[in-house]
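= Tokenised fold =
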Amino acid sequence: MAALPPPPTPTLSAIYAAYEADTPDSFREHLGASIIGKECLRALWYDFRWALRELFPGRMLRLFETGQLEEARLVRNLRRTGATVLDVDPETGRQWRVEAHGGHFGGSFDGVAIGLLEAPKTWHLLEFKTHSAKSFAELKRDGVVKSKPQHAAQMQVYMHLAGLARAMYWRSARTPTNSISSG
């Protein structure tokens, strides 16, 4: 017997539609550091030349927002350990931004911190990511370079352009389990 389709969820559908309607209809003006780790150079070329627009469904847009909301909590958690965390650039009052090649390449990162218990005297780039349970398990098993090469490349670019030697990648699962690593 064929499986029955899931029951309609008009409220959830309306929420997802609202996220889709609120999404800006513009391309980035630069090649973003968040995608530089893609294996396919052609895909990067297409992204930079605006050949294709990646449209995310409302469910994904809502999950992206969940990650953004989690950032404030992660900053509070780090500050509770005694670390000094700058989640905005004091010169601009906005999110940290780096760029290269006349602004054609760049990106924004989540913050910088000093006083982290793993290396208290060194400034660290901070990059916060949320993961599904499956993605989180792969990350714990294989590490960031193997399981999330785009994240690893993104952090290396940010560290280089910001003049930092260390980064803390704080991966937060969308489950009660959280973990941090430094390196």
Q: What stands out?
A: Strands lie at 31-32, 84-86, 96-100, 105-109, 111-114, 124-131, 166-173, 178-182. The first strand starts at residue 31 and ends at 32. The domain at 10-182 is CATH 3.90.320.10 (Lambda Exonuclease; Chain A).
